Amino acid sequence: MRVAKQAGIAYEDRGGGDVTLLLVHGWQGDRSVWDGVVAELGPGVRTIAVDLPGFGGSSTLTGPYNLDRFAAELRALLESLGTGPVVAVGHSMGAKVALRLAIEAPAMVRGLVLVAPVPIGPAGFSEKGQAYLRATAGDPVRLRAWLAKTIADPPDDATLDRLCAIAAKSPPGAVLECLEAWMHADLAEPAKRVVAPAVVIASAQDAPERAHSNVAALLPDARFVVVPDAAHYAILERPGAIASHIGDFVAALPKDGDRHE
């Protein structure tokens, strides 16, 4: 295991094998949310879990905090590590970041795993919904109330405490700028050019029909699966199931010599 920084980006490089997974957290998360999934995948899979600018170990980095910046930083990291094409795995907002990377650098992404993804297009939240999310930035009480809705009911206190502690690392300004970026970014048209195969993993308690219509149905080559007994943070609640779906997806990928550019 290697924990390091590349141009300020904190990341954790674990395991080894023929396939490298790039793990991208969601809004107000950090790389540690993937720990359970990484453990389930085992040491035979190389995983690179990152902290996006403004979050976790990268929380001191200055902006901008938007999808283009995030994708550029990930691209630079992969180039510096010499990974070759990776499977980009993103949770929630991180799924949109992974998709942006696949759009901007298609040769670097051999597959996409999008877990509980936010919409590819604009989020479509009401003004009330947007205000609700903005109010969580820097407010521990409102933050906890929101995060409680992202895990299965009744929420597990230890999991909720963990998510709150992770979110507290991020400066409110970075949280708000990032929110505006992913809420309003529209990747629906450029996503039509994505040649990498994808799997969209939704959760039964997280409006899976929206993940299908707003993400899977808009990608040229996407499978869709639903994880039972989990909510938005299925990567914490059902890491074994998530790892299993990732493993099945990776096993079905074309070999390097079979890829068509």
Query: Which sequence of strands runs across the widest sheet?
Result: 1-2-4-3-5-6-7-8
**Which stretches are low in confidence, meaning pLDDT under 50 for 5 or more residues running?**
257-261
Number of β-strand runs: 8
Silhouette: globular
The string of secondary-structure elements, in order, is: EEEHEHEHEHHHHHEHEHH
What structural class do you assign from the helix and strand content? alpha/beta
Count of discrete alpha- or pi-helical segments spanning 4 or more residues: 11
Provide the β-strand percentage band. Answer: 15-25%
Report on this structure:
This protein is α/β, with parallel strands linked by helices and 261 residues long. The protein has helices at 35-41, 67-81, 93-104, 127-134, 140-148, 157-167, 172-184, 188-191, 208-214, 234-237, 239-251; strands at 2-6, 9-14, 20-24, 46-50, 86-91, 109-115, 198-203, 222-227. An eight-stranded mixed sheet has the order 1-2-4-3-5-6-7-8, with helices on both faces. Strand 5 (86-91), helix 3 and strand 6 form a beta-alpha-beta unit. Helix 1 (35-41) packs across helix 11, helix 2 (67-81) crosses helix 3 and helix 5 (140-148) crosses helix 6. The two termini are 32 Å apart. The model is unreliable at 257-261 (pLDDT under 50).
